[in-house]
Amino acid sequence: MVSQTVIRRNRSRPPAAYVARSAPTNSHSIRASNNLMGAKMSFARNAEIYSENEPIEYLYRVISGAVRAYKVLNDGRRQIGAFYLPGDIFALEVGDEHLFSAEAIVDSEVLVVKRSVLVALAARDIKVAGHLCMLTAEELQRAHDHLLLLIKAAQERVASFLLEMAARSASANELHLPMTRQDVADYLGLTIETVSRTLTQLQKSGTIKIPTSRHIILRSRATLSRLSA
Amino acid sequence: MVSQTVIRRNRSRPPAAYVARSAPTNSHSIRASNNLMGAKMSFARNAEIYSENEPIEYLYRVISGAVRAYKVLNDGRRQIGAFYLPGDIFALEVGDEHLFSAEAIVDSEVLVVKRSVLVALAARDIKVAGHLCMLTAEELQRAHDHLLLLIKAAQERVASFLLEMAARSASANELHLPMTRQDVADYLGLTIETVSRTLTQLQKSGTIKIPTSRHIILRSRATLSRLSA
DNA sequence: CGTGCAGTTGAGCAAATTCAACGCTTGTGG
DNA sequence: CCACAAGCGTTGAATTTGCTCAACTGCACG
After folding, report:
1. Cα–Cα distance for residue pair B155/B161, rounded to 1 Å
2. Which long-range contacts (CB under 8 A, 24 or more apart) does B20-25 make?
3. A95, A207, B3, B22: which could join A202 in a potential S-S bond, CB 3.0 to 4.6 Å?
4. Residues of chain B (161-220) having a beta carbon less than 7 angstroms from strand D
């Protein structure tokens, strides 16, 4: 029993996601290029964006905030498959239903595009199809990297995680983590206590500094790199 | 240190894969449908089919035998990302280079199709593009399932593995495993000893029977299902 | 001011790994 | 044809890692 969170079915969660009445704009000129246009929606912290086994209606892009995609095993253990940060596109699944659930980690804004529109577009424009396929492939690579993470020892996982987050954040040596320790633990396949202890240990060894629990400064990337593999 | 195989760089391996001079056939009528045509190649047991970071030249389909796709961490630990059995298509990666290495587990035959041909075809025929994209998506789902495997306890992983292999093999309750215990261990993120012990334990409890180490009979799928999650 | 959530820390425990030895089978060379 | 080495698999004992359970702190919010 390598346990993670056991999901309490009635977790404290804001009543509902509210949909921001969004820019009444050019929703006809949807393009699947880098600057994908669509409607803007807002989700409160911990609000569900979509749920596993729900029919797929939209493709999303994070504008601000952060999103977690996860699965829950029958016995309640939760595995977070990915964190999505501003700029990231998510819900690229093929098939009719979502394979993951997605929730806003903090209050977040996302751009949404109707999947049907995109599919229709892709059917006519091979460029769009190629772009979508590439995004799927990137997702695949992400999953593979994550796989490799999960065979490592606890310290290696935490070090890898810090480096990954640093690579994805604006400032190279300073991190703001939008997610809780529990989220990190469920992403890394560890318990919250192990994550906490490992971080403390990294701080004691001078490798990182933790001014506040969500704010981490990498003092020695070299050490982290060495520890991460 | 959750260790797997430490790859001995000079493993005993047949001198080289030999390429069977293959059917001189209709290589013009290549179709990306279910019956993908191409050249047939043969690989001896443990022969390398392609290696990580090599440019991608072909797409492969297993005719007979079995293939493992794996990555090796800098410190030598090996993670097997997937096993491919007859009918399975592999090396569907986007980008220019292979992200995994692939080896024949036993003497195997594979059908190969030049990637460039396929890509050209996909650029003209949206059906082909869609098909390729779907295959990639299936690969993604496989990776996600594998991810979930890796957060489970040892017994759960082994049970899941047996059920997965049973689902993919001809006879529902009888398995022939083409791979070694080491391969299984590296797929499941466990050690060879743990795999061996767990199988023995499953046999003692009457859940499975192991006439020979590569031949396993599932006596109670129900129990395995219960153990697998 | 009390309650609840997030995070940390400690002690004991269980699971899986490491290290080591051994049996079986297979292939090879004398 | 036999002896022997090598690979594969199993088993046992000791060790380690990370988990479980529990207590405690700080902080935010009502």
Report:
1. 10
2. B20/B109
3. A207
4. 180-182, 192-193, 195-197, 199-200, 210, 213-214
Taking contacts as CB-CB distances below 8 angstroms, the residues of chain B near A2 are: 151-153
> What is the SS3 string spanning chain B?
CCCCCECCCCCCCCCCCCCCCCCCCCCCCCCCCCCCCCEEEEECCCCEEECCCCECCEEEEEEECCEEEEEECCCCEEEEEEEECCCCEECCCCCCECCCEEEECCCEEEEEEEHHHHHHHHHHCHHHHHHHHHHHHHHHHHHHHHHHHCCCCHHHHHHHHHHHHHHHCCCCCEEECCCCHHHHHHHHCCCHHHHHHHHHHHHHCCCEEEEECCEEEECCHHHHHHHHC
Q: What percent of chain A has pLDDT over 90?
A: 72
Predicted local confidence at residue A36, as pLDDT: 54
Q: The pTM is what? A: 0.87
Low-confidence ranges of chain B (pLDDT < 70): 1-37
pLDDT at B172: 84
DSSP A73: -
Tokens of A49: 């964006």
Q: Which residue has the tokens 């990190």?
A: A184
